[in-house]
Amino acid sequence: SNTTLSTLSLVSDDISCLRQPDWMLLSNIVHAFDTFSPLFEVQHMIQFLTRTSADYQYILQQSRNIVNVIYQSIQSSISAAADFRIMTTDEQCSLVQRNMHGIWAFYSMVICHQCKMFDSVESKNIMTPLYGSDSVEYVRSITVRLDPDLTLVKLILM
What average pLDDT does the structure give for the chain? Predict the structure, then answer.
């Protein structure tokens, strides 16, 4: 039998079957991502690099900086979560070691998509020195299929 689930309408404050603690948890996750979002900083770096003629080494250095900014952002978001903070140090390390590569890869694709990194040849070329044109093009092909609902993406990542 087909079961139809009612949709959640955040615009009309319809919290459907969510209880207050569930609603609060979702709100806290979204807030943590928004608080530590690197979107503005990465957009600024992309705009600067696409408007500046720079040599290969400088672009390579800046692409590494973009990666570092995104990594620090996701690490800060996770570290700010109450559920993460109550874990022992060993549990935290284990969780990060098992999951960080996948979370970071998806999160960085989302950030690059939101910053329109793959919308022009100039901005795509920022990551080419670091990853190569084939990898950059492959990531672009994945990001064009991402769901544009950032709230959903934030919840998936946590």
Answer: 84
Residue 133 pLDDT greater than 80, yes or no: yes
Q: Which two tokens stand for residue 40?
A: 């503005």
- In sequence order, what are the residues at sequence separation of 6 or more whose Cβ sits closer than 8 angstroms to the Cβ of residue 28? 81, 82
Q: Where are the domains of the chain?
A: 21-157
Q: Nearest Cα to 152, choosing from 33, 55, 63, 58? A: 33
Region for 13 from its dihedrals, namely left if φ exceeds 0, alpha if ψ lies in -120 to 50, beta otherwise? left
One-letter identity of residue 43:
Q
Model-level pTM?
0.78
* The pair of three-digit structure tokens given for residue 91, joined into one six-digit string: 């549990």
**pLDDT score recorded for residue 127:** 93
Identify the helix (H) or strand (E) that includes residue 142: helix 133-143
Enter the tokens of residue 52. Answer: 């500046």
Among 139, 107, 100, residue whose Cα is nearest residue 38: 107
92 SS3 class: helix
Q: By C-alpha distance, which of 45, 93, 116 is closest to 124?
A: 116
Report d(CA 34, CA 18) in Å as an integer: 22
